[in-house]
Design brief:
It is built from 13 helices and 24 strands. By secondary structure, the chain is α+β, with helices and mostly antiparallel strands. It has 2 domains: 245 residues, BirA Bifunctional Protein, domain 2 (2-Layer Sandwich); 90 residues, Anticodon-binding domain (Rossmann fold), CATH 3.40.50.800. Bound molecules: zinc ion.
Length: 439
């Protein structure tokens, strides 16, 4: 069954709340706008997205190392990076109704989308998107600190530390997953654009003459990551930025875009940042940030290729891409056909009934499986309804313990997508699941 694009958005938002993927933050206080909390299955999905990124970007590569830099940072970093002066949006206010808009996002520069007034806008003011706070007990300008608006600068400021301790040489990368903060004027589209979000970024340092080659390499590598995790080819595209879209320091940028219900929108940007960041920090700090080959005597400032992805919006894209409705025996079955590596639970252990004699063997099966995979255990309601619940949160395998189990020491394993069932001896269960749940 085809799910209508307009309906898909509401369906996924409802599912998120109903099954515990995403909750409105501070809901008991009326909700905190555009801020979300990840529930019991949402946190697992998000962790799995980040884990798969880390596996492909760090674990499987000898040329990339990890980092976890601080969120609080001194103004000097943002002065050097250009964020203090350039990381701004032009804002206008409507004199009639007081609504505030990003000037560059207005469809009609002269008409207020809220009240319809004409020529009611104030002159545009530049508004900095960084969150500022104070470190320590004194509120004065000397104690000002910022919440990082991107994780990238931590990789640049630690360039020499990583170079000296990791024994890497260009081409090599530094990868980081962490929260960033931007005071967006118009957040929206559920978890797509929020003021607090999580990034997965990697800075790849290369000899200057090789930067075009590595840019192409990372565009392809990153597209393949989404496809390899089961995202449909039709749902993805690589959009090359026009010359006038590029930041002044960028030599090339391409976005990986997902076909969201509201249109194509960005999941990840891959940018050739040249030597801009290292040069800026070298100038501002007075420290040389360069690669120095003690063997050949070669010395240069590496250029940087940066694949920067949003973890939270990527998790949402996988949810939307995996959501399907099927007709089974005259009823609609909602199923999340997530790649098993992303599924919150890999296995659900389900006693056929609540009868005492089934509980003990079911707990034994749970104890057997849960050291290997994230498991759910559920013993209430009819088995059919429990299958549907697991389908809806994307659990690839349900293991059912029935009265026959007491005799034949075997369980029924049901696969999510095909709904095919196998009878598997308990002693062979781990082997059966291992061959199907490949990390
Ligand atoms: Zn107005």
């Amino acid at each position: 069954m085809d799910v209508n694009k307009e309906e898909l958005f509401d369906k996924v938002v409802n599912l998120s709340k109903r099954r515990g993927f995403v909750f409105q933050s501070a809901e008991i206080y009326g909700g905190f706008r555009s801020t979300y909390d990840y529930g019991p299955v949402g946190v697992l999905l998000l962790r799995n997205v980040k884990e798969q990124w880390w596996r492909s970007m760090v674990q499987f590569r000898q040329d990339v190392v990890g980092l976890d830099a601080a969120i609080l940072s001194p103004p000097a970093i943002w002065e050097a990076s250009g964020h203090l002066t350039n990381f701004t949006d032009p804002l206008v206010d409507c004199r009639e109704c007081g609504s505030r808009f990003r000037q560059d996002k207005l469809e009609d520069q002269n008409k207020c989308p809220s009240c319809g007034a004409n020529s009611s806008f104030t002159e545009a003011r530049q508004f900095n998107l960084m969150f500022k706070t104070n470190a320590g007990p004194v509120i004065d300008s000397a104690a000002e600190v910022y919440l990082r608006p991107e994780t990238a600068q931590g990789m640049f400021t630690n360039f020499t530390n990583v170079l000296n301790t990791s024994r890497k040489k260009p081409p090599f990368g530094i990868a980081q997953i962490g929260k960033s903060f931007r005071n967006e004027i118009t957040p929206g589209n559920f978890v797509f654009r929020t003021r607090e979000f999580e990034q997965m970024e990697m800075e790849y340092f290369v000899p200057p003459s090789d930067s075009d080659k590595w840019f192409e390499y990372w565009c392809k590598e990153r597209m393949d990551w989404y496809l390899n995790l089961g995202m449909k080819e039709d749902s993805l595209r690589l959009r090359v930025h026009d010359k006038d879209e590029l930041s002044h320091y960028s030599r090339a940028t391409s976005d990986i875009e997902f076909s969201f219900p509201w249109g194509w929108d960005e999941l990840e940007g891959i940018a050739n940042r040249t030597d801009y960041d290292l040069n800026q920090h070298a100038k501002a700090s007075g420290n040389r940030l360069e690669y120095n080959d003690s063997g050949s005597g070669e010395r240069y400032v590496p250029h940087v290729i940066e694949p920067a992805a949003g973890a939270t919006r990527t998790a949402m894209a996988f949810l939307m891409d995996a959501y399907e409705e099927e007709e089974v025996n005259g009823e609609v079955r909602n199923v999340l056909k997530l790649d098993h590596r992303l599924s919150p639970y890999k296995v659900a252990v389900l006693p056929l009934s609540k009868k005492d004699e089934l509980i003990e063997p079911s707990k034994e099966v749970l104890n057997l499986v849960q050291p290997h995979w994230m498991c759910d255990y559920d013993q209430t309601q009819a088995i059919g309804r429990r299958y549907r619940r697991q389908d809806e949160i994307g659990t690839p395998y349900c293991v059912t313990i029935d009265f026959e189990t007491l005799e034949d020491k075997a369980v029924t394993v049901r696969e999510r997508d095909s709904m095919h069932q196998d009878r598997v001896p308990v002693l062979e269960l781990i082997e059966y699941l291992s061959s199907r749940l490949v990390p």
